[in-house]
Amino acid sequence: MHTPFKHEAELERQLRTMEISYFDLRIVNSVGKVVEQREELLFSQIKDILEWLNEKNEKGNSIEFRPHGEHGLTLLTGLTHDQVQNAKLTHCEPALIVEYGQNQFQIWLKHDRKLLADAATQVSAHLCRKLDADCEHSKWDSFGYMVGFVASADDKPFLVELVAHSGEVFSSAMALNDRLAKS
User: Which burial class, exposed, middle or buried, applies to 73 when counting CB atoms under 10 A from its CB (0-12, 13-18, 19+)?
Assistant: First the structure.
């Protein structure tokens, strides 16, 4: 018997806010090994497997995702509440804020354009340093946590929650992308 997934509405807000058509999804076991990965899934395809994903999550696996291919988002992870507030004050207002552990946040910044892989790499490295995020896990092609599933943060299970979802482009995006495009 499949376990019902109770957080579909919040997950749908998270994914629709990103304004991305296709996603990559992976299941990571408790020791950090990817046990399964699926690419180029529509939201409707993710909805079709939510109960299965929930069963995998209940067995101690993390459920992670990212936009498929090149896109206009940057994921920054390993942030505290104060660092998220600092991002807002420095014109890097998150389109999405996700809490995945006690005072542990991921933010998705929405750009004013789609970024090619090289530009996205530069931008994510710059933003990671600027906001003092976990640069090892804040690359343009990094995976983030899906809302409504349990993450193992600090070796303690934590229900991943959607804190905010404006969907807005951050106010310094155009200037940053223009400046880095010229370098």
Answer: buried
Q: What does pLDDT average to in each consecutive run of 10 residues of the chain (183 residues)?
A: 80 95 95 95 95 94 95 96 97 97 96 93 93 90 95 81 97 90 69
User: Residue 48 and residue 180: Cα distance in Å, rounded?
Assistant: 40
Query: What span, in angstroms and rounded, lies between the C-alpha atoms of 17 and 134?
Result: 23
Give the HSE-up count for residue 70: Cα atoms under 13 Å, Cβ half-sphere. Answer: 9
Distances (CA, A) of 177 to 15, 19, 157: 24, 19, 37
162: which strand partners? 98
Cα of first residue to Cα of last residue in the chain, in angstroms, is: 56
Distance CA(168)–CA(142), nearest Å, equals 21
Give the max Cα distance, the chain: 56
Do 177 and 123 meet the contact criterion of CB atoms below 8 Å apart? yes
